[in-house]
Amino acid sequence: MAAALALAGAFGWGVGDFLGGLAARRLAVLTVLVVSQAVGLVAVVVWALVSGDPFPGIPELLPAAAAGIAAMVGLGALYRGFAIGAMGIVAPISAAAPVVPLTVDAAHGEIPSAAQWLGVLLVVSGIVVLSREPRSGGVAAGAGLAVIAAVCFGLFFVGIDAGSDESSAWAVTAARTASLPVAVAAALVTRVPLVAPRLLLPLVAAVGLFDTIANVFVAAATTYGAVGIVAVLGSLYPVVTIVLAWLVLGERLGLGKRVGGAVALAGAAFVAGG
Fold first, then answer.
1. How large is the C-alpha radius of gyration of the chain?
2. pLDDT tens figures, 212-259
3. 52: Cβ–Cβ under 8 A, 6 or more apart, which residues?
4. 20 to 30 A from 220, CA-CA: which of 5, 35, 54, 157?
């Protein structure tokens, strides 16, 4: 059951990221974030109420709220990276997020295992291959934004873990409640529309729904099985994004990039599961 739920979560994240990238190619990233975060907030509030978990209290949820803001910044970087670069390059780099909580654990005296150190080496190697533009020797479009996304997603994992001791449902709700006002404020300051055009509204709303559904599946998976296994399976979400980019957009990557992506994903799995 845990494996099936975690894989369903990975599928939801992968589809949501792909749709977010598509939307960001047609709309301002902040517009995509505001609408999708609003849809997601409604969905997670319903989830929290249905779950029946008691409200933990505001102080207990502050880490989750900070995690939500970090995730929102990460999604903005990821969607913008998808808009200007190849999803097959950006998605695997963003999967390096588990390196951040590993680093935090190491700073608190929890020594990483040999498998996790190997994972870090593989992640870094994969990112180097994916980021390098062979013809010009420069950095591939979107690679820098993908690194920012990975760091922010890693901070999200740290914060949501600290804030979900009492209730994962309320922790995710707190994360979305904190991130939406920040996205709205950024949109107002930059004078970006807060509402998507009618024709694109279903696409942007689907981004928020898939992301929220994925969160629900992964949170449920952790109640049935080990968090490490769930994290490994959940980290497969870029595979879904890459396959969709290949099927829908016709993206083609050279052998070196494909190998680099596989190495980065394998490293993320080692880090998460070590």
1. 18
2. 888 778 777 766 755 556 666 777 788 888 888 888 888 877 777 778
3. none
4. 35
Which pLDDT score, from 0 to 100, does residue 102 have?
Answer: 75
178: CB partners within 8 A, 6+ apart: 64, 65, 66, 68, 69
Would you mind telling me the total number of residues written for the chain in this entry? 274
- Of 137, 138, 134, 140, which is closest to residue 92 (Cα–Cα)? 140
CB atoms within 10 A of CB 148: 18
Comparing CA positions, the residue from 38, 46, 15, 102 lying closest to residue 216 is 46
Q: Distances in Å between the alpha carbon of 202 and those of 40, 121, 137, 205, 267? A: 13, 40, 40, 5, 35
Rounded Cα gap, residues 252 and 53, in angstroms: 46
- Please answer whether residues 221 and 2 qualify as being in contact, where contact means their C-beta atoms are separated by less than 8 angstroms: yes
The pTM score is 0.84
Domain positions in the chain are 2-273
- Asked if 53 and 109 touch (Cβ cutoff 8 Å), the reply is no
Between the two ends of the chain, the Cα-to-Cα distance in Å is 21
Whether residue 260 has pLDDT greater than 80: no
Share of the chain above pLDDT 70, in %: 89
Residues 6+ apart with CB under 8 A from 73: 148, 152
Alpha carbons 67 and 180: distance in angstroms, whole number:
12
